[in-house]
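Q: How would the structure tokens look for this protein?
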Amino acid sequence: MKTANFRSGEMATGDASVKVALVTGASTGIGRQIAGRLARAGYRVFGTSRQPAAESLDGFAMLPLDVTSNESAVACVQTVLAHAGRLDILVNNAGVEFLGAAEEASIEEARWAFETNFFGVMRMTQAVLPHMRARRQGVIVCISSLAGLGGAPFQGIYIATKHALEGYIESLWYEVEPLGVRVALVEPGFFRSEIGQRKRLPARTIPDYAADRARVFARWERLLADSPDPAPVAETVLAICDGRSTRLRHLVGRETRLSRFKLVVPEWLVRRRIRRLFGLEDPPRRRLK
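A: Here is the predicted structure in token form.
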């Protein structure tokens, strides 16, 4: 693994009072906002990307990392420890998006999504935990999604990765809290991000889904285009890192009211609301023959 060159000197070294954070997927979008916000708050921040285009961005250093590789995950954490001597915070932000009907997705395509969105988080978490356990302190923040709390049309594989992440982190919370390590989930709604531009679609499509798929994808693009800047997500992560919030789950964004809506209304009304959010009509009622 190529190591970063820190000639630019933008990071202070040797100050034991400065907390060190590692943010995955920090070259663009939400990850870049999070890393920049932590840097401005006084943290020593290392961001990551598969192939960093620069040695530093917005006041933080960049390191190469492929979260789908065990060797890369371990090497990245060791690089941070070698340069900073400690690692206080891990923000698992790197993610990919797969959109398409559940039936259209192949097993290989589903594995591709899980490799980054779930196993990538697992790799990075296991890479930092020995250091955090030894020091009896640390914070692990995982950027999940509002999608991790429900379902939505033509997003089944992506949503499945987020449901897996939610269960994994909630279970981890019980295990590491007694050891001084805090874990937290951030569940954003729609925010401006480049992830939609890098989405992957199934290689095989089924004509029966074509009309609804087109409607959902068109609405999806409009929702992303009208989405706000992800600064509130970065502020939420900062609050977790600073200890101002010690909750497990953190809903962020205007769509989060839908999650609360689900707790107090009938299921059929929730389904209707989600269909309308994505531009779908209610299906006709059919009697069993």
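Residues 1-12 have pLDDT under 50 and may be disordered.

The chain has one domain: 20-277.

Upvote if useful.
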